[in-house]
Structure formats: C-alpha cells, structure tokens
Q: What sequence folds into this?
C-alpha cells in the first residue's frame, strides 16, 4: 500500500487510474500486458466481444489513438502503426502476396523498397515486375492476370515524378488488383490518395508525420477489411510500434499543418532559385511549371511538398564538392524534419543498384536531394548559393 499525501486515502499500487482522471494529452501505456479480472473476461476478449487489451504486440491504447488520428487525416476507415516504413511495407507485401503472385512496382520508388522486392520477395516466389512511370501512364495496358498488387510513389523518391493516382486506382479496381501508394513525400495534407480510389496508403512516419527526426515509424491506412488483414500479419511478425515512439509520433502530428505549410513555402522558393541558376543542370520539383508532371501534380495535390532534387554536371565528383560545402543544410539521410538536409541518392537510398536500375529509376550520379526545412529561406538560399561555387 502506498500513501499519497497527508490525510488522503491509501491507494493500492498497480490500480488503474480513476475514470475521473482526464488527461489533456494522449498518455503512454508503457506496458507489455493488460490485466483481466476473470477467465470469463479473457474469453470475451478472445471471442471478439470485448474492447479490452491483451498484449501490446497486438494493440496498445497509445498506438491506437495515434493511428486513429492518421486515419482521419488520410480519410481512411482505419490505420496501423509499424516500427518503420519498411516494416509497414514488408508486412503489407506478406499479407497480400504469395508464391506465384505478381507485384507491379514503379521503378521510381525508394531504393529500400526495390531491394526488399528483389532480395526478399523474389526469393519467396513472388514475381516482381518493375515498370517505368511512362508505362504506368497507361496502367490498364501493363496489368496481367497474375498481377495482385501495384505499388507506386507520387511524388517519387528522389526524382519527384508524379503518377496519375486516379488512373492507377481506376485500372486496378477494374481488374480487382490491390493498389498501394507510398504517400510519404506528399503527406495527407498535400495529397489524399484514398479519396482518388487507392486501396491502401503507406507512410514512413519517420518523416513529415513525426517531423522532428527522432522517431522511426511506419503507417498503413485504408479500408477496414484490408487493414484488418494487415493487422493479423503484423501481430504474427511483431512489426508493431512501441508506445513511447507512438506517443512522440502523436505529438509531432499536432504541428503537422503548420510545419507542412512552411515546408511547402520554403521548398517552392528554393526550387525557383535553383531553377534560375545556370550552375544547376536541372531541378525537379512538382510545383515548377517546367516539371514534366506539373499539370498532373496541380490537379491531384493541394501543394507540392518540401523535397527538391537538383542535378549538377560533372557527376558524383561535382555534386560531392557541392555537398561538402553546405553549412545550413545538414549532410544526412532521411527527410521531413524541421531541419534542412541534403543527401546523395547514389550513396544512400539507391546505393548498390546496377547502372541499369538507376537509369530506369531516373537517378543519376550528379543528383542531390534536398529536404527543405523550416529555417529562414534566405539563409537556405544563401547556403546553396555558396555551395554551388565549388569547382
């Protein structure tokens, strides 16, 4: 028994909080297991007749609250949290694909997704077919009778090419094929693919959803019937997010709108600066009228995000000198945090891929990917300006 304060009653240690306690913020349920009062109560849970919790590998109240917020942002019926974006991706693949099935994947995707498909899924007998964004412009022509799932990104990492989300969703629905989009770069505020008919939406929540570069997490959102199937696989694989990380993710979501607004604004100004600079070979940002997918992006996005990709003449040697001179932009992988970052795709996200794979993905040795943060945009532009002076 523990006494709390003079004149107060004794409170039994380990008792749940009173219903009169109403926390302002979502509390952390840092527990592996949950208590039951009787065998009958356990049976009701096992039979699905109870809202109780059993074990945090299955569900946790902290995680469920955060997942519910993300589902609302995406216009989804349900969402699930995972220990990383790759955990969300792999769990989804293992839920809906079996040996002999075909997955159709855009060549313009995160390099880790490409390696997951070619290194793991193919070894399990799944047929993997990579198609270019041009081929995905007419999705009904590339899908086959063995196709079970289409995976794509829009905007894509790192090229920022955009695909017609509505057209892909429509073609997949017509042929009863599952469509899944990685919506990490766009965020639910800039784009809601589920509204366009996509079946499932994935996020690396380590990026914009968290926004502070201190949580590794993933999300899948969509219809109840599909999310429930992924939930079963997640339970078996144990790819669930820890409640402390879920709490931090939920805290980041509270500032998502104001952060994304600043990311969008800063990135547009950075892209315009780079686009008008003769030292830069090319700039890729969906919000620039010269971007090949500008009209499509404008039609399906509310704004254009915080990532800008630039290419310099001279290949890896030249872009490395630019990279090494940066001062305000930090040299690091990842994106979507409050700080501005720069990474070189051929040395990070697309490291180890063949020249042909890089060519099909549109990735060159002279590319640098900028995650434009929340700093004063004139400081960011001045930093890029001085870094471009490298010989």
A:
């Amino acid at each position: 028994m523990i006494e709390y304060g003079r004149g107060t009653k004794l409170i039994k240690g380990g008792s749940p909080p009173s219903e009169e306690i109403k926390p302002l913020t979502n509390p952390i349920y840092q527990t592996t297991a949950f208590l039951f009062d009787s065998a009958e109560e356990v049976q009701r849970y096992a039979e699905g007749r109870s809202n109780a919790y059993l074990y945090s590998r299955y569900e946790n109240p902290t995680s469920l609250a955060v997942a519910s917020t993300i589902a609302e942002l995406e216009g989804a019926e349900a969402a699930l949290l995972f220990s990383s974006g790759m955990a969300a991706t792999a769990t989804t693949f293992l839920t809906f694909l079996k040996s002999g099935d075909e997955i159709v994947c855009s060549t313009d995707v995160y390099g880790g997704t490409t390696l997951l498909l070619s290194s793991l899924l193919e070894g399990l007998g799944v047929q993997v077919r990579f198609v270019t964004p041009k081929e995905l412009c007419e999705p009904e022509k590339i899908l086959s009778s063995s196709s079970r799932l289409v995976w794509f990104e829009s905007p894509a990492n790192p090229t920022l090419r955009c695909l017609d989300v509505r057209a892909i969703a429509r073609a997949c629905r017509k042929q009863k094929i599952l469509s899944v989009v990685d919506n990490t770069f766009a965020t639910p505020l800039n784009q809601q693919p589920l509204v366009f008919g996509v079946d499932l939406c994935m996020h690396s929540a380590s990026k914009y959803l968290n926004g502070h570069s201190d949580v590794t997490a993933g999300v899948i959102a969509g219809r109840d019937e599909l999310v429930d199937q992924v939930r079963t696989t997640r339970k078996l694989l144990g790819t669930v997010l820890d409640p402390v990380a879920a709490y931090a993710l939920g805290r980041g979501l509270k500032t998502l709108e104001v952060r994304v607004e600043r990311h969008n604004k800063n990135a547009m100004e950075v892209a315009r600066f780079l686009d008008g600079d003769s030292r830069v070979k090319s700039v890729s940002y969906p919000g620039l009228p010269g971007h090949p997918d500008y009209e499509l992006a404008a039609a399906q996005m509310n704004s254009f995000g915080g990532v800008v990709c630039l290419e310099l003449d001279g290949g890896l040697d030249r872009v490395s000198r630019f990279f090494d001179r940066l001062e305000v932009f930090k040299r690091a992988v990842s994106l979507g945090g409050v700080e501005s970052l720069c990474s070189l795709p051929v040395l990070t996200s697309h490291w180890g891929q063949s020249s042909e794979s890089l060519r099909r993905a549109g990735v060159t040795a002279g590319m640098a990917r900028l995650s434009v943060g929340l700093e004063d945009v004139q400081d960011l532009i001045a930093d890029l300006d001085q870094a471009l002076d490298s010989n």
About this structure: Residues 39-253 form a domain with the Aspartate Aminotransferase; domain 2 fold (CATH 3.40.640.10). The chain has two domains: 39-253, 256-387. Residues 256-275 form the longest helix (20 residues).
